[in-house]
Amino acid sequence: MTFDQLMDRARSLVAEGTRALLGITGPPGAGKTTLAEHLIQTLAPAPPPLIPEQWIAHVPMDGFHLANKELARLGRCDRKGAPDTFDPAGYAALLRRLHEDIDDIVYAPGFERTLEQPIAGTIPVPRSARLIITEGNYLLFHDHGWDRVRPQLNEVWYVDLDTEERVRRLIARHVRFGKEPTAAAAWASGTDECNAVLINSTRSHADLIVPANLMRSLGAPPD
Ligand SMILES: Nc1ncnc2c1ncn2[C@@H]1O[C@H](COP(=O)(O)OP(=O)(O)O)[C@@H](O)[C@H]1O
Ligand SMILES: [Mg+2]
Known about the structure:
It contains 8 helices and 7 strands. The protein is an alpha/beta fold.
């Protein structure tokens, strides 16, 4: 499988000009955001025939993290990133609204990595957007209300990366965004690893597996 084949497959989802939603899932640090950004960068200037500009948008699931204050109320600060530390119903409602394709603009929340909190109204999705790429941990998960998500998506791809490289990248990302190296390693082998096991259990439900060798060949995206 090549990156060009992934591009063609993503582009073909909007062949009729109807809005399509493509999901990308996989464990923490596997490269979901990286793949989405590469696809958007290369596809943005190359819309399908008869589709106008601004045809592609990126709406991460990460914007549906609960705020720290709510995690504290729930006693779940130390498990941030687990299935019950998001608002899956809110995410599914946003995806449904995008699918309905009736609003001139839909604002999606973003996740601010330094604050480690979501911020509403961060991502404007214009009506012209025909392909929405959404990515995150639990697109194929069933418990805690996540089963509402998959029906809103045309396809879901699962990103593979060998565990050693994935954990190395994950720790580097934690450090880049302010964790001490020891705390970063502990978080990666604790909370992140528990989540990775859950996410891995959804792998067989994916429409496509993006192989590790392809993921390794993609360069790191700009932060
Ligand atoms: N080719 C690469 N080499 C080194 N680091 C990379 C590469 N591709 C991505 N990364 C980094 O790995 C980390 C994890 O990737 P990311 O796309 O954020 O994963 P996910 O969204 O699945 O958690 C990020 O900090 C990213 O910049
Ligand atoms: Mg990500």
